[in-house]
Amino acid sequence: MLLPEVPPRNLADYTGWLLQLVAAHEAGEPISWVRYGPLDLWSEERAGAVNPLEGLPHDACLDLSSKEPDVAASVLVTRLHRSGLTPEGPVTDVALLASGLGYPAWGAAVTNIPPRNPHFTDRDAALAALAQCLLSDDGRSRPDAGGLVGLPGVGKTQTALEFGHRFASHYDVVWWVNAERQASLSGQLAELARTLGVEEVPDLAVVLTRLWAALRERNRWLLVYDNVEQPPDVSTIWPRASNGDVLITSRNPNWGSLGVTRVSLKAFDLHDGEAFLLKRTRESDREAAREVSARLGGLPFALEYAGAYVEERRASLADYRALLGDGPRHMSAAADTDWYASAMATSWNVSFNSANDENPHARALLSVFSFLAPDDIPRHLVPEHLGDLGGERGGLPATRAEYDRALAVLVRLSLVDVTEDRVSIHRLAQEYVLNRITGPEEQRWAVCTALALVGAAFPMEPLRSASWVTCRRYMPHVLELSDVRAAHYPLLRGRCPAVLGSLLLRAGRYLHLRGEHGPARELLEQALDVETSRAEPDRLAKALVLAALGRVYYHQAELGNARRVTEQAIAEAVGELGERDRLVGRLRLHLSRILRELTQFEEAERLAREVLQHLTQPDGAGHPLIAEAWATYGDALWRRGSLREAADSYRRALGIRSVLPDTPAIDMATCHKHLGIISRELGDLDAAEQELRTARTLLIADYGTDYGENHRDVVDVDGHLAEVLRRSGRLEEAYGLLRRVVEVREEEFQDHPDVAGSLTKLGALLRDQGRMEESESTLDRAVAMFERCMGSGHPYVADAVVERSLTRHAAQEQEGAVADIDRAMSIYAARYSAGHPDFERAQRVRQAIIAR
Predict the structure, then answer these.
(1) Kind of pairing, strands 144-149 and 261-264?
(2) pLDDT by residue (tens digit) across 530-548?
(3) Nearest to 516 by CA among 743, 208, 196
(4) What one-character-per-residue DSSP string does 698-745 give?
């Protein structure tokens, strides 16, 4: 039990720790003189204060868990007076939040933490170490972070769970994140954002920015990242707020890079294992308890299974010892994971066989659960989607009543944990069950059934905001089933290709929408592999996968791959739907955008014109696809240098979109943005600023005034607006805007053409401010980044090189300035036709440099 070394200083503090003290005293637990909570830090060396238990008889313990704070305070004051312990300060002070503590019976105001383990025991030293690390107020600039590390089965998760419950009153928010799959982490944090009232938007980067801001407004928070494999898995979602704590559990001991204070857990020694079993089973046979603990290696998780069996069967520890046979006896803390798994299996054999004997559906349920993500299996998944299995129900229960009875058996034997809305099963238990599946047909049935259930539950329209909560919840199960490293994946790919391909497509599109391009790409590439290898090809399904993958490649600036798969998508779609289908039109417009970035402007224009010609509506009729075609046509004209013709196309697109109902703000804003860019290049800075501010206003109104500033679409507009301000001579205003653009884009993309474009603008601005060294350094970064992302001969490289040439010229580096401008002109000459505005500007710059 954790207590402060000396009595706390006021009534609020007394309330916080005395509830814990009373419960521990009532249970007969020893009291450790270790500081508790965010009180003054005390050390064991300063022990010797008055024992707060004196005058508090064991048979007169207080139960304050259901009392209101003022009533609890009054009862405590009376008891303290009787015990001769009077709190400092007025006893009428019953403001329990005065010290930053909440009333312990309440816990955190916002939490999703799983239920507390009523059989948790020991680990006081680990909890004390975590409290010392996390519950301090030290003027920090980043979250305090603690880590529970150790081999499987030693109780890392249960210890973290106990910490979250025991110290819940110190936090306003306690949020549990199952971190085994990296791609599902952000979705769980997005769920926290939604719970905190943050407006839901597709862009995950914006959601996380809003979440950190919301947490900064809270009193104190705790994020628990459970079962993290390695630091890079959580580095991108490490909180950007310092008024809280992070607790991780991991098998990996190396966490110094994130400043995590490591607390190592090992198996129970003989004494602690014996104590656990005696408490868990309420028995007194110390010899049997010690022998069972020894045979199970002192593993808390294995001991829990033993205790559950004894309790459920009303057996004795001596009986259980006989059932174990000659199981492992090795107690070394350095035992390898294979031995740990063997020790766990020794315990599970008993519970698994017992469950199968008692209920005919237990084995089938465990088999299906073992192919899903272990921590949050929706409780309703099996009964609600059983009808989607057709004749493949196998041994699953046919009714909800049968399902509930089977689940109850698994719960009583601790094979699964269940709450009102979820089922969880330990990862090692899953591995054990999979090893017990006897033949290929049983494995095929179990994994295909798991896939069919998840496929039926995952939304068919993942891009609609109403489906995002469901998508987030099922993403861990999609990732579990799609793990190409797992032995079951080839079976799914061969036996259930249609269901698997459809699920991977939907999940990939959802992740792409959320801005998680890397994970989206992985799933969509798998989906393409599945569709390509199908015995009965589905051309439309393949076209949809290729199209989605092409969009991901485009956003990752892999234009060659984007072109290749988009052309394949068009071929498949034309073969299935014909030339004039609208899906074919949308794919051709996307290909036009790719070709524009590849500087193949004539081909890009041709594709956009073809779409306009193939649409059945007359020219100018109100259809979103016609507006998209005019905008795409304008994109190609703009990049080719035909600025006035491009402006006409954007105005036609804007005219259509302005009269259509429910036109997305981004579509309207995009037209205004490009009209602003063209006005800037034509020298009309006032019109340019007006168009860009109109685009910005539309986006902010759509994304929200509080957080829309950092949305990638707003940031894009702000970059162009900053350039207008620079050319207008408003340098300080432009600098403030552009610095934020660079910071936001670097945080989101790191190495990307959008970042390089912002650096190019910033380099030009720094030159205008007379900061030549900074300007050249910034432009060096821009040139190098464009070369990595787009190739050394792309016009974007030339754009940055022109700005660096001007900087070197201003810094009187004549030789470097000439070399840069000559390189830029050679790139423009290779990619642009005569008369292109960028090429003509480069010629003027060269003349000015040479003239000097």
Answers:
(1) parallel
(2) 999 998 889 999 999 999 9
(3) 208
(4) HHHHHH-TTTGGGSHHHHHHHHHHHHHHHHTT-HHHHHHHHHHHHHHH
